[in-house]
């Protein structure tokens, strides 16, 4: 399984689906109407969109990219569609996990250490990541569920969903500036496309998180 770099001209005119798909089961009582729900740990990012209509020669790289995916075999890092980070603090900071006693980070929250190269607002309550922001850790993409605030030091707590699939050691870098998601095509026919005059290529792409 190879990671195929996305082309420089990669972009979309329409995104039909982007988000987390989950798996669970609900049973409802025939007597009282009450329900019981089982939520499974399955939580994958799903994408469906229409790429920009490419003329030649820009279409060259897109064709090659889709061919290199080899159907569902290979993966690519999809930039989060339409995402612009909401906190200016992120532009000057590096974020990494901070494990108490060296313990790995797990679950839905993490202690993080923040370092910076230029002036950053470190006053208590300053925002490093806003609710709804994305970040990537390892090969996992997450959404921040509560504002990540400064406590006046270089260590803060970040809350997120979905939960981590594995533990990450102290010092693991977290990308809040340009997060991506590892994806693979859901169709073996991903390397097919339409054409319209004057030689405009119509590409569509459906993909699912891959790890």
Summarize the structure in words.
The chain is mainly β and 211 residues long. It has two domains: 99 residues, no CATH class; 91 residues, Elongation Factor Tu (Ef-tu), domain 3 (Beta Barrel), CATH 2.40.30. The chain has one helix and 15 strands. The strands form four sheets. The protein has a six-stranded antiparallel beta barrel with strand order 4-5-10-8-7-11. Strand 13 and strand 14 form a beta hairpin. The mean pLDDT is 88.
Features of this protein?
5-stranded antiparallel sheet; single chain; 211 residues; 2 domains; 15 strands; Elongation Factor Tu (Ef-tu), domain 3; mainly beta; globular
What can be said about this structure in brief?
The protein has 211 residues and is mostly beta strands. It is 5% helix and 44% strand.
Q: Helix and strand layout, with pairings?
A:
Blueprint: E1 12-28, E2 35-51, H1 58-68, E3 76-79, E4 93-97, E5 109-116, E6 127-129, E7 134-137, E8 140-144, E9 148-149, E10 155-161, E11 173-175, E12 180-185, E13 194-196, E14 200-202, E15 204-209
Antiparallel strand pairs: 1-2, 2-15, 3-12, 4-5, 4-11, 5-10, 6-9, 7-8, 7-11, 8-10, 12-15, 13-14
């Amino acid at each position: 399984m190879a990671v195929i770099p996305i082309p420089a001209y990669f972009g979309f005119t329409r995104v039909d689906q982007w988000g987390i798909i989950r798996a669970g089961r609900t049973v409802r009582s025939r007597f009282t109407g009450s329900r019981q729900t089982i939520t499974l740990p399955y939580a994958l990012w799903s994408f469906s969109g229409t790429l920009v209509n490419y003329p030649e020669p820009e279409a060259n790289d897109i064709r090659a990219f889709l061919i290199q995916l080899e159907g569902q075999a290979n993966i690519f890092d999809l930039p989060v569609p339409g995402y612009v980070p909401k906190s200016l603090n992120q532009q000057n900071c590096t974020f990494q996990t901070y494990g108490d006693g060296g313990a790995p980070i797990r679950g839905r929250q993490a202690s993080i250490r923040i370092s910076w190269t230029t002036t950053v607002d470190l006053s208590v309550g300053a925002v490093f990541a806003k609710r709804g922001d994305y970040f990537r850790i390892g090969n996992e993409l997450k959404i921040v569920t509560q504002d990540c605030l400064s406590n006046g030091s270089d260590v803060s707590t970040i809350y997120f969903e979905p939960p981590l699939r594995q533990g990450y050691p102290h010092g693991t870098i977290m990308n809040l500036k340009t997060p991506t998601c590892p994806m693979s095509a859901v169709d073996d026919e991903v390397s097919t496309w339409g054409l319209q005059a004057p030689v405009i290529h119509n590409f569509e792409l459906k993909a699912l998180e891959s790890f």
